[in-house]
Fold this protein.
Amino acid sequence: MSSAGEVGLTPMADPQVVTRPQQLYVGIRGAVTMDTMRSIADRIPVIIGWLTDRGIPVAGAPFLRYWVIDMERRLDVEAGVPVAEPVDGDGEVSPGVLPAGSFATVTHVGPYEELVGATAALLTWADEHGLAFDVRPSPEGDVWACRLECYHTNPIEVPDPARQETELALKLAE
């Protein structure tokens, strides 16, 4: 395995393949552009508030799940929060299940603005290791079975952008 430094990632993170179990969650979907990406990420506190109001505990790191990616036009993205038990959604909040399987992952420590570069480096690493992603092209863009950015630090609790910890997890083809 090549080291993370060889593909442009922070030396603190080594890409790897991990098996993730199926994960229940609730989320809010939206279509955004690269310029309006924050609008969907800003929905995470809404979901956490929705869960809190119902006494439902959060069961993991909040995330953005990319469904369809066309970097030139739009991205279909979902802000989500894991839960331990099935939950009925209402309004704009709906339940979902992240699929189980093998994922290429890396943890990036640094500003969120660096995630595009970290993702490109993870894609390069996977290609160097002969790994194929569970993705298919469509006229709307690349359709991903599961492509996640999991936010392990809360920017309110850790305001220093250089210390923001984000796990990238991209589902591999079976």
Observations:
- The CA atoms of residues 46 and 97 lie 19 Å apart.
